[in-house]
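Reminder: ligand-aware prediction takes two inputs, not one.
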Amino acid sequence: MKIAVFDAKDYDVRSFTECGEKYGIDFKFYETKLNEDTVNLACGYDGVCVFVNDTVNPAVIDKLYAAGIRVIALRCAGYNNVALEHCFKKIHVFHVPAYSPYAVAEHTMALLLTSVRRIHKAYNRTKEFNFSLSGLTGFDLHGKTVGVIGTGKIGCIFIDICKGFGMNVIAYDKFPKKDADINYVPLDELLSSSDVISLHCPLTEDTFHIIDDGAVAKLKKGVIVLNTSRGALIDSEALLEGIKKRIIGAACLDVYEEEADVFFQDFSGHIVEDDILARLISMPNVIVTSHQAFLTEEALNNIAQTTAQNLTDFFNGKSNDNELCYRCGNVDTCRKKRKARCF
Ligand code: NAD
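Here is what comes back for the chain with nicotinamide-adenine-dinucleotide:
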Protein backbone atom coordinates (compact mmCIF):
# COMPACT_ATOMS: atom_id res chain seq x y z
CA MET A 1 0.00 0.00 0.00
CA LYS A 2 1.65 3.23 -1.19
CA ILE A 3 0.26 6.49 0.20
CA ALA A 4 1.32 10.03 -0.78
CA VAL A 5 1.35 12.29 2.28
CA PHE A 6 0.95 15.98 1.40
CA ASP A 7 1.98 19.02 3.47
CA ALA A 8 4.20 16.70 5.52
CA LYS A 9 6.24 18.13 8.39
CA ASP A 10 9.15 16.56 10.26
CA TYR A 11 6.84 15.42 13.09
CA ASP A 12 4.51 13.74 10.55
CA VAL A 13 7.43 11.92 8.92
CA ARG A 14 8.50 10.50 12.30
CA SER A 15 5.08 9.33 13.53
CA PHE A 16 3.84 8.05 10.15
CA THR A 17 7.08 6.23 9.30
CA GLU A 18 6.98 4.36 12.62
CA CYS A 19 3.32 3.52 12.18
CA GLY A 20 3.73 2.59 8.50
CA GLU A 21 6.28 -0.08 9.44
CA LYS A 22 3.79 -1.61 11.88
CA TYR A 23 0.87 -1.60 9.42
CA GLY A 24 2.85 -2.43 6.25
CA ILE A 25 2.06 0.93 4.64
CA ASP A 26 4.65 2.73 2.52
CA PHE A 27 4.12 6.44 3.27
CA LYS A 28 5.92 8.86 0.91
CA PHE A 29 6.14 12.42 2.12
CA TYR A 30 5.71 15.63 0.13
CA GLU A 31 6.34 19.01 1.74
CA THR A 32 4.07 20.67 -0.79
CA LYS A 33 0.35 21.03 -0.17
CA LEU A 34 -2.12 19.18 -2.35
CA ASN A 35 -3.78 21.47 -4.89
CA GLU A 36 -4.49 21.62 -8.62
CA ASP A 37 -0.81 22.26 -9.39
CA THR A 38 0.56 19.40 -7.29
CA VAL A 39 -2.13 16.76 -7.69
CA ASN A 40 -0.13 14.92 -10.37
CA LEU A 41 2.33 13.87 -7.66
CA ALA A 42 -0.38 11.44 -6.53
CA CYS A 43 -0.05 9.37 -9.74
CA GLY A 44 1.07 5.83 -9.03
CA TYR A 45 -0.10 5.86 -5.41
CA ASP A 46 -2.95 3.88 -3.86
CA GLY A 47 -4.21 6.80 -1.79
CA VAL A 48 -3.43 10.26 -0.48
CA CYS A 49 -3.14 11.59 3.05
CA VAL A 50 -3.93 15.28 3.56
CA PHE A 51 -4.10 17.91 6.31
CA VAL A 52 -6.14 21.02 7.10
CA ASN A 53 -4.73 23.38 4.48
CA ASP A 54 -4.59 21.01 1.50
CA THR A 55 -7.08 21.89 -1.23
CA VAL A 56 -9.43 19.03 -2.02
CA ASN A 57 -11.85 20.83 -4.32
CA PRO A 58 -13.82 19.30 -7.24
CA ALA A 59 -10.99 19.86 -9.74
CA VAL A 60 -8.46 18.11 -7.48
CA ILE A 61 -10.91 15.29 -6.75
CA ASP A 62 -11.49 14.71 -10.50
CA LYS A 63 -7.75 14.52 -11.11
CA LEU A 64 -7.21 12.15 -8.17
CA TYR A 65 -10.01 9.93 -9.45
CA ALA A 66 -8.57 9.93 -12.97
CA ALA A 67 -5.21 8.91 -11.45
CA GLY A 68 -6.90 5.87 -9.89
CA ILE A 69 -7.01 7.20 -6.32
CA ARG A 70 -9.97 5.77 -4.41
CA VAL A 71 -9.17 6.88 -0.88
CA ILE A 72 -8.34 10.18 0.84
CA ALA A 73 -7.19 9.88 4.44
CA LEU A 74 -7.44 13.16 6.33
CA ARG A 75 -5.03 13.24 9.26
CA CYS A 76 -7.23 15.72 11.12
CA ALA A 77 -10.77 16.02 12.45
CA GLY A 78 -12.13 18.99 10.45
CA TYR A 79 -12.93 18.38 6.78
CA ASN A 80 -14.16 21.77 5.57
CA ASN A 81 -11.37 21.73 2.94
CA VAL A 82 -12.82 18.65 1.19
CA ALA A 83 -15.68 18.86 -1.35
CA LEU A 84 -17.34 15.78 0.15
CA GLU A 85 -20.36 15.73 -2.13
CA HIS A 86 -18.06 15.67 -5.14
CA CYS A 87 -16.26 12.63 -3.69
CA PHE A 88 -19.53 10.67 -3.38
CA LYS A 89 -19.46 7.48 -5.45
CA LYS A 90 -15.86 8.23 -6.50
CA ILE A 91 -13.44 8.46 -3.62
CA HIS A 92 -13.86 7.32 -0.03
CA VAL A 93 -12.85 9.91 2.56
CA PHE A 94 -11.72 9.15 6.11
CA HIS A 95 -10.83 11.46 8.96
CA VAL A 96 -9.46 11.17 12.48
CA PRO A 97 -12.41 12.36 14.57
CA ALA A 98 -10.58 12.44 17.88
CA TYR A 99 -6.86 12.15 18.46
CA SER A 100 -6.56 14.18 21.59
CA PRO A 101 -9.38 16.56 22.37
CA TYR A 102 -7.41 17.22 25.56
CA ALA A 103 -4.53 18.67 23.52
CA VAL A 104 -6.79 21.31 21.94
CA ALA A 105 -8.78 22.11 25.09
CA GLU A 106 -5.60 22.42 27.17
CA HIS A 107 -3.98 24.67 24.55
CA THR A 108 -7.08 26.88 24.64
CA MET A 109 -6.71 27.30 28.40
CA ALA A 110 -2.97 27.91 27.98
CA LEU A 111 -3.76 30.78 25.61
CA LEU A 112 -6.37 32.20 27.96
CA LEU A 113 -4.05 32.10 30.97
CA THR A 114 -1.17 33.55 28.95
CA SER A 115 -3.41 36.42 27.91
CA VAL A 116 -5.04 37.26 31.24
CA ARG A 117 -1.81 36.92 33.27
CA ARG A 118 0.38 38.57 30.59
CA ILE A 119 2.80 35.62 30.61
CA HIS A 120 3.99 36.43 27.07
CA LYS A 121 5.08 39.88 28.20
CA ALA A 122 6.63 38.72 31.48
CA TYR A 123 8.64 36.06 29.63
CA ASN A 124 10.16 38.63 27.28
CA ARG A 125 10.83 41.08 30.09
CA THR A 126 12.65 38.72 32.44
CA LYS A 127 14.75 37.42 29.49
CA GLU A 128 16.13 40.97 29.40
CA PHE A 129 16.40 41.19 33.21
CA ASN A 130 13.53 43.66 33.32
CA PHE A 131 11.68 42.76 36.49
CA SER A 132 9.15 45.60 36.41
CA LEU A 133 5.50 44.64 36.97
CA SER A 134 4.11 47.71 35.31
CA GLY A 135 1.37 46.87 32.80
CA LEU A 136 1.17 43.21 33.84
CA THR A 137 -2.02 43.43 35.91
CA GLY A 138 -4.35 40.59 34.98
CA PHE A 139 -7.65 39.39 36.39
CA ASP A 140 -8.98 36.29 38.16
CA LEU A 141 -10.75 33.75 35.97
CA HIS A 142 -12.62 32.55 39.05
CA GLY A 143 -16.19 33.82 38.96
CA LYS A 144 -15.99 35.08 35.36
CA THR A 145 -18.45 33.89 32.71
CA VAL A 146 -17.10 31.84 29.81
CA GLY A 147 -19.30 31.26 26.76
CA VAL A 148 -18.49 28.08 24.84
CA ILE A 149 -19.77 27.80 21.27
CA GLY A 150 -19.84 24.12 20.28
CA THR A 151 -20.12 21.50 23.01
CA GLY A 152 -18.61 18.47 21.28
CA LYS A 153 -15.54 16.58 22.39
CA ILE A 154 -13.20 19.56 22.71
CA GLY A 155 -15.84 22.03 23.93
CA CYS A 156 -16.90 19.68 26.75
CA ILE A 157 -13.33 19.14 27.96
CA PHE A 158 -12.75 22.90 27.86
CA ILE A 159 -15.95 23.36 29.89
CA ASP A 160 -14.64 20.93 32.53
CA ILE A 161 -11.31 22.78 32.68
CA CYS A 162 -13.13 26.12 33.09
CA LYS A 163 -15.32 24.67 35.83
CA GLY A 164 -12.12 23.61 37.59
CA PHE A 165 -11.12 27.28 37.59
CA GLY A 166 -14.43 28.20 39.22
CA MET A 167 -15.76 29.91 36.11
CA ASN A 168 -19.45 30.26 35.36
CA VAL A 169 -19.98 28.34 32.08
CA ILE A 170 -22.71 29.06 29.53
CA ALA A 171 -22.85 27.43 26.10
CA TYR A 172 -24.46 27.54 22.69
CA ASP A 173 -24.73 24.56 20.33
CA LYS A 174 -27.01 24.13 17.35
CA PHE A 175 -27.47 20.54 18.50
CA PRO A 176 -27.43 20.75 22.32
CA LYS A 177 -26.57 17.59 24.22
CA LYS A 178 -29.56 16.11 26.00
CA ASP A 179 -29.15 15.31 29.69
CA ALA A 180 -25.79 17.07 29.89
CA ASP A 181 -24.95 19.32 32.82
CA ILE A 182 -24.50 22.30 30.48
CA ASN A 183 -26.24 25.65 30.79
CA TYR A 184 -27.30 26.27 27.17
CA VAL A 185 -28.36 29.82 26.25
CA PRO A 186 -29.27 31.45 22.93
CA LEU A 187 -26.26 32.69 20.92
CA ASP A 188 -27.10 36.38 21.42
CA GLU A 189 -27.25 35.94 25.18
CA LEU A 190 -23.88 34.17 25.13
CA LEU A 191 -22.36 36.99 23.09
CA SER A 192 -23.65 39.73 25.37
CA SER A 193 -22.95 38.15 28.76
CA SER A 194 -19.60 36.35 28.39
CA ASP A 195 -16.28 37.67 29.73
CA VAL A 196 -14.53 35.02 27.65
CA ILE A 197 -15.82 33.37 24.45
CA SER A 198 -14.30 30.18 23.10
CA LEU A 199 -15.13 28.68 19.72
CA HIS A 200 -15.31 24.89 19.47
CA CYS A 201 -17.77 24.31 16.62
CA PRO A 202 -16.82 23.07 13.13
CA LEU A 203 -16.61 25.40 10.15
CA THR A 204 -19.81 24.98 8.14
CA GLU A 205 -22.06 27.27 6.08
CA ASP A 206 -23.90 27.99 9.36
CA THR A 207 -20.84 28.87 11.37
CA PHE A 208 -18.85 30.77 8.71
CA HIS A 209 -18.12 34.20 10.31
CA ILE A 210 -20.24 33.36 13.35
CA ILE A 211 -18.23 36.24 14.85
CA ASP A 212 -18.86 39.05 12.36
CA ASP A 213 -19.59 42.79 12.67
CA GLY A 214 -23.09 42.08 13.97
CA ALA A 215 -21.82 39.67 16.62
CA VAL A 216 -19.01 42.01 17.68
CA ALA A 217 -21.58 44.77 18.27
CA LYS A 218 -23.33 42.49 20.78
CA LEU A 219 -20.21 41.57 22.78
CA LYS A 220 -19.60 42.57 26.38
CA LYS A 221 -16.94 45.26 26.55
CA GLY A 222 -13.51 43.80 27.26
CA VAL A 223 -14.38 40.21 26.27
CA ILE A 224 -11.54 37.81 25.46
CA VAL A 225 -12.14 35.86 22.23
CA LEU A 226 -10.49 32.45 21.86
CA ASN A 227 -10.41 30.54 18.58
CA THR A 228 -8.71 27.15 18.43
CA SER A 229 -11.26 25.74 16.00
CA ARG A 230 -11.19 27.09 12.43
CA GLY A 231 -10.09 30.54 11.26
CA ALA A 232 -13.13 31.42 9.17
CA LEU A 233 -15.41 31.20 12.20
CA ILE A 234 -14.24 34.77 12.77
CA ASP A 235 -14.39 37.60 10.25
CA SER A 236 -10.84 38.89 10.79
CA GLU A 237 -11.69 42.46 9.75
CA ALA A 238 -14.57 42.54 12.25
CA LEU A 239 -12.22 41.21 14.94
CA LEU A 240 -9.64 43.88 14.16
CA GLU A 241 -12.30 46.63 14.27
CA GLY A 242 -13.68 45.21 17.54
CA ILE A 243 -10.21 45.38 19.10
CA LYS A 244 -9.56 48.89 17.76
CA LYS A 245 -12.92 50.07 19.16
CA ARG A 246 -11.89 48.54 22.55
CA ILE A 247 -14.93 46.22 22.52
CA ILE A 248 -12.76 43.11 22.38
CA GLY A 249 -10.23 43.22 25.21
CA ALA A 250 -8.00 40.45 23.86
CA ALA A 251 -7.93 37.74 21.21
CA CYS A 252 -6.11 34.41 21.24
CA LEU A 253 -6.00 32.70 17.90
CA ASP A 254 -4.59 29.30 17.05
CA VAL A 255 -6.29 29.49 13.67
CA TYR A 256 -6.72 32.31 11.18
CA GLU A 257 -8.98 32.77 8.18
CA GLU A 258 -6.16 33.07 5.67
CA GLU A 259 -3.73 30.79 7.48
CA ALA A 260 -3.14 28.43 4.55
CA ASP A 261 -0.48 30.64 2.97
CA VAL A 262 1.30 31.50 6.19
CA PHE A 263 0.95 28.98 9.01
CA PHE A 264 3.36 26.06 9.42
CA GLN A 265 6.10 28.02 7.60
CA ASP A 266 9.01 30.22 8.70
CA PHE A 267 8.39 33.78 7.51
CA SER A 268 10.81 35.37 9.97
CA GLY A 269 13.03 36.67 7.15
CA HIS A 270 10.15 37.85 4.97
CA ILE A 271 7.56 40.59 4.83
CA VAL A 272 4.14 39.16 5.61
CA GLU A 273 1.72 40.24 2.86
CA ASP A 274 -1.42 39.81 4.96
CA ASP A 275 -1.99 43.27 6.48
CA ILE A 276 -4.77 42.15 8.79
CA LEU A 277 -2.68 39.34 10.26
CA ALA A 278 0.33 41.65 10.60
CA ARG A 279 -1.82 44.29 12.36
CA LEU A 280 -3.36 41.69 14.68
CA ILE A 281 0.04 40.27 15.61
CA SER A 282 1.35 43.78 16.29
CA MET A 283 -1.28 44.33 18.97
CA PRO A 284 -0.25 43.78 22.60
CA ASN A 285 -3.54 42.04 23.43
CA VAL A 286 -3.46 39.51 20.58
CA ILE A 287 -1.71 36.15 20.85
CA VAL A 288 -1.34 33.99 17.76
CA THR A 289 -0.12 30.41 17.65
CA SER A 290 0.13 28.72 14.29
CA HIS A 291 -2.44 25.92 14.46
CA GLN A 292 -0.47 24.05 17.09
CA ALA A 293 -3.28 23.20 19.52
CA PHE A 294 -3.23 19.56 18.37
CA LEU A 295 0.53 19.20 18.59
CA THR A 296 1.28 16.80 21.43
CA GLU A 297 3.11 13.45 21.32
CA GLU A 298 -0.10 11.66 22.27
CA ALA A 299 -2.08 13.34 19.49
CA LEU A 300 0.57 12.69 16.81
CA ASN A 301 0.73 9.00 17.67
CA ASN A 302 -3.07 8.70 17.70
CA ILE A 303 -3.33 10.52 14.35
CA ALA A 304 -0.81 8.20 12.66
CA GLN A 305 -2.35 5.08 14.20
CA THR A 306 -5.96 5.97 13.31
CA THR A 307 -5.00 7.02 9.77
CA ALA A 308 -3.15 3.72 9.24
CA GLN A 309 -6.14 1.78 10.60
CA ASN A 310 -8.55 3.75 8.36
CA LEU A 311 -6.44 2.93 5.29
CA THR A 312 -6.04 -0.72 6.29
CA ASP A 313 -9.79 -1.12 6.76
CA PHE A 314 -10.46 0.55 3.42
CA PHE A 315 -8.09 -1.71 1.48
CA ASN A 316 -9.47 -4.77 3.31
CA GLY A 317 -13.02 -3.78 2.30
CA LYS A 318 -14.13 -3.29 5.90
CA SER A 319 -16.56 -0.61 7.01
CA ASN A 320 -15.15 1.99 9.36
CA ASP A 321 -16.93 4.63 11.44
CA ASN A 322 -14.34 7.23 10.45
CA GLU A 323 -15.52 7.24 6.84
CA LEU A 324 -17.15 10.56 6.03
CA CYS A 325 -20.28 10.86 3.99
CA TYR A 326 -21.82 14.08 2.82
CA ARG A 327 -25.19 13.05 4.23
CA CYS A 328 -27.10 12.47 1.01
CA GLY A 329 -30.17 12.40 3.24
CA ASN A 330 -31.45 9.18 1.71
CA VAL A 331 -32.59 7.47 4.90
CA ASP A 332 -33.80 4.29 3.16
CA THR A 333 -30.63 3.60 1.23
CA CYS A 334 -28.07 4.97 3.67
CA ARG A 335 -25.46 2.24 3.86
CA LYS A 336 -23.60 3.90 6.72
CA LYS A 337 -26.68 3.48 8.91
CA ARG A 338 -26.38 -0.23 8.25
CA LYS A 339 -22.71 -0.09 9.27
CA ALA A 340 -21.58 -0.60 5.69
CA ARG A 341 -19.29 1.52 3.52
CA CYS A 342 -20.81 4.77 2.29
CA PHE A 343 -20.94 3.48 -1.32
P1 NAD B 1 -17.18 17.71 17.63
O1 NAD B 1 -17.78 17.29 16.35
O2 NAD B 1 -17.02 16.71 18.74
O3 NAD B 1 -18.03 18.94 18.22
C1 NAD B 1 -18.47 20.02 17.45
C2 NAD B 1 -19.69 20.61 18.14
O4 NAD B 1 -20.11 21.76 17.40
C3 NAD B 1 -20.89 19.64 18.20
O5 NAD B 1 -21.45 19.59 19.50
C4 NAD B 1 -21.87 20.26 17.20
O6 NAD B 1 -23.22 20.02 17.56
C5 NAD B 1 -21.52 21.72 17.32
N1 NAD B 1 -22.03 22.51 16.21
C6 NAD B 1 -22.26 22.12 14.92
N2 NAD B 1 -22.80 23.13 14.22
C7 NAD B 1 -22.93 24.17 15.06
C8 NAD B 1 -23.43 25.48 14.93
N3 NAD B 1 -23.94 25.91 13.76
N4 NAD B 1 -23.41 26.29 16.00
C9 NAD B 1 -22.93 25.85 17.20
N5 NAD B 1 -22.44 24.62 17.40
C10 NAD B 1 -22.43 23.78 16.33
O7 NAD B 1 -15.79 18.36 17.25
P2 NAD B 1 -14.50 18.56 18.18
O8 NAD B 1 -13.65 17.35 18.12
O9 NAD B 1 -14.93 19.06 19.50
O10 NAD B 1 -13.73 19.69 17.37
C11 NAD B 1 -14.25 21.00 17.25
C12 NAD B 1 -13.46 21.72 16.18
O11 NAD B 1 -12.12 21.92 16.64
C13 NAD B 1 -13.27 20.94 14.87
O12 NAD B 1 -14.34 21.15 13.99
C14 NAD B 1 -12.00 21.50 14.30
O13 NAD B 1 -12.34 22.53 13.41
C15 NAD B 1 -11.29 22.10 15.51
N6 NAD B 1 -9.99 21.48 15.79
C16 NAD B 1 -8.89 22.29 15.86
C17 NAD B 1 -7.65 21.73 16.14
C18 NAD B 1 -6.40 22.59 16.26
O14 NAD B 1 -5.29 22.06 16.24
N7 NAD B 1 -6.52 23.89 16.42
C19 NAD B 1 -7.52 20.35 16.32
C20 NAD B 1 -8.68 19.57 16.25
C21 NAD B 1 -9.91 20.13 15.98
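Residues 297-315 form the longest helix (19 residues). The two ends are 21 Å apart (CA to CA). We will return to this case in the review session.
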